[in-house]
Amino acid sequence: MKYGRLMAVVAALMFLPMLVGAETGADLWLRYSKLPESMATGYRKEAKSLVVTGNDATQQAAAGEIRMALRSLLGTTPTLSKGVADGSIVLATSSDKIVKDLIPGGLELSDDEAYVIRTVSVKKGKAILIAGRTTTGILYGTFDLLRRMQNGEDISNLDINEQPAYKLRLLNHWDNLNGTVERGYAGHSIFWNREESFEQLKDQYLTYARANASVGINGTVLNNVNASPEVLNTENLERVKQLADLFRPYNIKVYLAVNFASPAVLGGLDTADPLDENVQQWWRDKAAEIYKMIPDFGGFLVKANSEGQPGPMDFGRTHQDGANMLAGVLKPHNGVVMWRAFVYEPTNSDRAMQAYNEFMPFDGKFADNVIVQVKNGPVDFQPREPFSPLFGAMQKTPLMVEFQITLEYLGHSNQLAYLATMWKEVLDADTWALGAGSSVARATDGSLFGNELTAIAGVANIGRDINWCGHDLLQSNWYAFGRLAWNHQLSSEQIAEEWIRMTFTNDDSFVSTLEEVMMRSREAVVSYMTPMGLHHLMGWDHHYGPEPWTDLSWARADWLPRYYHRAGEDGIGFDRSSKGSNAVSQYFSPLREMYDNPATCPENLLLWFHHLPWDYRLASGKTLWDALVYKYYEGVEQARFFQKEWDKLEGKIDQERFEAIRYKFKQQTKEAIWWRDACVLYFQTFSKRPIPAELERPVHDLDELKSLKFDLKHHN
Amino acid sequence: MKYGRLMAVVAALMFLPMLVGAETGADLWLRYSKLPESMATGYRKEAKSLVVTGNDATQQAAAGEIRMALRSLLGTTPTLSKGVADGSIVLATSSDKIVKDLIPGGLELSDDEAYVIRTVSVKKGKAILIAGRTTTGILYGTFDLLRRMQNGEDISNLDINEQPAYKLRLLNHWDNLNGTVERGYAGHSIFWNREESFEQLKDQYLTYARANASVGINGTVLNNVNASPEVLNTENLERVKQLADLFRPYNIKVYLAVNFASPAVLGGLDTADPLDENVQQWWRDKAAEIYKMIPDFGGFLVKANSEGQPGPMDFGRTHQDGANMLAGVLKPHNGVVMWRAFVYEPTNSDRAMQAYNEFMPFDGKFADNVIVQVKNGPVDFQPREPFSPLFGAMQKTPLMVEFQITLEYLGHSNQLAYLATMWKEVLDADTWALGAGSSVARATDGSLFGNELTAIAGVANIGRDINWCGHDLLQSNWYAFGRLAWNHQLSSEQIAEEWIRMTFTNDDSFVSTLEEVMMRSREAVVSYMTPMGLHHLMGWDHHYGPEPWTDLSWARADWLPRYYHRAGEDGIGFDRSSKGSNAVSQYFSPLREMYDNPATCPENLLLWFHHLPWDYRLASGKTLWDALVYKYYEGVEQARFFQKEWDKLEGKIDQERFEAIRYKFKQQTKEAIWWRDACVLYFQTFSKRPIPAELERPVHDLDELKSLKFDLKHHN
Q1: Chain A touched by B487 (CB under 8 Å)
Q2: Does A268 share its domain with A347?
Q3: Which residues form the active site (chains A, B) (predicted)?
Q4: Which chain B positions have a beta carbon within 8 Å of A691's beta carbon?
Q5: ipTM surpasses cut 0.90
């Protein structure tokens, strides 16, 4: 054994400098740190040799990954062999002869990305077959097997059949061409960084590609939805091509967010009217240029007529006109158009209702390579919102869910909010579109309305920080988004556990403790920021910290917290009931009626749908004021609990990440208290009611908090 | 009743503008706000008329005070009358004929400041006699009766005999001639303010005099012990005379702190050698000048050869030479010299031992009008110190206790530390000088060693802030100092209760709640700043906030926290045992042996006398580390408790002071957490031990706290 360990070390030193030295988080969940002997011994028998049937780049990537990983995990490298024997791992496509030999009757795979992992008998023993209809399936299957091994699962008798829930599983990077990242809290853009050469950045890009492939992410939008026309100039397209070539073996397509006015601004035309022939020709020429460089280019993401971005309405046209024009341009190249439904205007109508009102008329009128991208909630990535009523309602148009992985409204990279629980809450929510069981997931994954084109997107939390996400624990959201995009049936607990074991350690007490903290974390943030359906109380523009009082005479009402909380001496909350804005009418029965009645409306959305007096009695018997205050205090207690639990884990992992995370938890508690005091003291100026006597007193002074100003931009 | 109340209002409006409008704290405990009818009714019968036997200014001040007070308290003013009748209050000296009429055999009073308050029978009823050997006794007796009435005591059958414990009961004002106040946290100097004329300031000075007289303070040192020679120039002496004349009716003598080098600096002599004839003549001339202006001038306070101040040793002389020279100069004028024993040098010897070593050799060698002023502890006004070993040891020299009312080391004016408990701890401490019962109080009040000259001083917390002390609740320390100087047998609880009732309200729940908070407050500060005998961990120079880590290469070791805490991997604490500096040897048996043994040393002084390993086991079974951490946490919990208790009192007093105090308690909790985290995290770098798991985690980061810098001077 000594010798084996020695060799492992030597190997590590020779081939894996990235695994040596201080833990930085740079390796994400691909650390492949050596497994405890107890686990490794068994696995070695199953991984004596490796059979690879082809030379295709993707299959080679899979082979390279598994060899490197096993060397590191087990301390031994499977020998490359032509023939299958006991202890072989076979990487093959279903059409390869070897599969027909191993599986009488061969394999039928439903999908180009699907795969199987099977234990098959061979003479004198058994082997593990990882097969896909394409080599992509092999790549995904390989990462699946490695994940199971890192999680200590039994791999002696496997029969796994996997296929993705959504066809397109994308990251959206809000990266600007100048290298900044809108709502980025982990350093500057990894894509548009010009300080280092592409060569110097290659390793980083490969880790990015491997990490995405390991969770099944198959596409990435490389630039901000608030898009500069310049992204389409030739120099930038060259960069896009370089990335596309590097990502291709990992089954990752590149996409671009485009500015609808590009033909005018970049092309010099006097209009960008989608019905103008020259405009259409400009787009056709641009598409041809792109596809000549990148034959498998994914398509365009468009934010049109929203928050000042140009769009078809600027030329008297409609979303339909704009989206379908671009769809026509991309169709010959098999590209798709992702058209965002995030639209609202400072009108009298409830902001939460506008996307629905603006898009429903176009249901069924979009071309078949258009998909409408809808944020999970009707307002904007708040700690908690009800699901967007477009889900389930727009039945003749494919919709894609847009989640936000970066914590724009949940504490940036200073707080832990594990978002799998939030995303599951949305995906599992029942729209009642076709009666019970019409979940948001089924309304978007094709199973409910039979749409061919299915997709899901997450706004990335990735930057140039050494640990990618600015907070080691927030890597889990990148991981969780990918896993749920592949299979929305996975539980948040399982995803957390997988990620913890791969990212930190298999120590069971560490795993269970951190898993508990992660599972509570998002609700904690909701509690100390915006409990009971409150929303958008955050700082002006940068969205950091509490500012329920913000009032700027010149600002759009719907960008100010008062628009949302409506606190006054008479009570608090936004009346979206049938007596108010009637936003409830956008939901199907029985949700509509449930939300419409304060007595049946879920307490965690109560103030989203209702404006209620401070002395309103909740089911608990508490007054609204007391319940609200207790929620804010509960949030702080949760943050303190996280600190305590984390401190118990010292010594179980590397000190570098332990201390970095401990520092983050300190920040989180400080900011939780800041939020609690700010909101409770501010709302108290209206409620005129005391903080329940048994509760700790605020330590902040409202006037002092109001005077705080942060020099933060909305990009890093 | 309506009419009566109406008249009371009218009277208040006509004569008492100071009691009208917002509460500012400016009236201290002399608010005389109207008593509840339930209390007032009874008192009116006892105060129908007022008999005043003389025109002496002090007696008139007493008469004026009681009439103004009763008008305000009862809504009725006693009529002035010549003859004693039922319901008369009589203000007389024991030599007045009226006293002999009322008290067969007359009155014998032991002391010029003593007084009696007696219920005496007169025809058709009874009267209250307030008598002193001098009119000073009358003044003090008058304030005594008013205090009892404001406290709702029964005054129908009084037999009170009072006399002071100390002859000289002084405030020391560390006020600089430029108007700043060293260690002042309540605004600039009330005495050396040149922005307003003496006339404009007169009301303020009268309130100051009345407040002092009401608690028996009979002297005030008008300038900083770090004295400018200029205080003795004629212009400044004119100011001193004005104040002396104003204070005289209230039995308050003025004193000055003098710079020992004055003859050279101010007088232009080439030396200030106390044995030099010209120097002595200069002082004699200066004294003559002073006493010509102020015949009852009290004397000099001298800080010599301490912290850079000049002194006799600069000329090869001794404390004895210096003090006795000045004593000789003042003797003919009946002035006293208060010579401070606060001396220490950056030598190898323990700073806590130096005053004792430097002064003991002179015991019995000082002139009889010299008194040595000794700070309560051997180092410097820390939140907790053992008493100075000079008390009890220096038996042939009168010693005066110096307390610090201003919170130099206890949070300035941002924190509540009610100091009666600390001062009682010192005064009641048994020195064992002549066996059991040799308390510090008895060692200084003449009862133990029979010294004639007795005195006590408190460094004032008074400035030009509207509420005098920068924090409404800190007025209680000014009050408590005076009360204890008069009678050190009073309990801290009684003093607190008296003060609360006069300053705020007679509402019993308010009184008991605030009294409880005040009684716990000093120990809370000790707990979160310097528990278990730790000391001097405060910020460099300004002494604000935690800086246990401060390390300035150029600074005197004995001005740096490390000199005092001595924390290292081996443990923490200053070894003053017989194995260490042997400071314990300066105490009498059995204290010496008790302090010398960690097992018998009081836990609250353990690290003052001992350096112990982190795993040292305390009687509780806790390790030293755990016990220390728990203490720091307990301090924070106490601060939070104060906030909670205070918030329960809203509505029971004026909103102005309620909110100002609530804000201070917020500050206190924030700073308690700051202290706790700073000290625990800093000491943890040595102990390498965890914070007990059940405790809340720190919210601050040590490096961030270390980087905090405050632009604070050591004067306001």
Answers
A1: no
A2: yes
A3: 307, 380, 408
A4: 647
A5: no
